[in-house]
Automatic annotation (TrEMBL):
Top-rank taxon, per record: Bacteria
Family annotation (InterPro entries): Alkaline_phosphatase_core_sf (IPR017850), Sulfatase_N (IPR000917)
Organism: candidate division TA06 bacterium DG_24
A Pfam match: Sulfatase
Protein name, per record: Sulfatase N-terminal domain-containing protein
Domain Sulfatase N-terminal: 5-61
Length: 61
């Protein structure tokens, strides 16, 4: 029997990429840093719309 894999989407509106994952020396994000190290991180993405609601809906359908 294959082990199932968990999927976790972290969707944050208005978060700059340079303010997490250890990129900023003043802001500490150890939990998100740990999740990135253990999982998959997408560093480039294209949104389907300017509004967050439409983009989230497109990701989850």
């Amino acid at each position: 029997m294959k082990a199932t894999k968990n999927v976790l989407f972290i969707l944050i509106d208005c978060l700059r990429a340079d303010m997490c994952f250890g990129e900023d020396r003043f802001v500490k994000t150890p939990t998100i840093d740990s999740l990135k190290e253990k999982g998959t991180s997408f560093t480039q993405a294209i949104a389907v719309a300017a509004r967050t609601e439409a983009t989230v809906a497109s990701m989850l359908t």
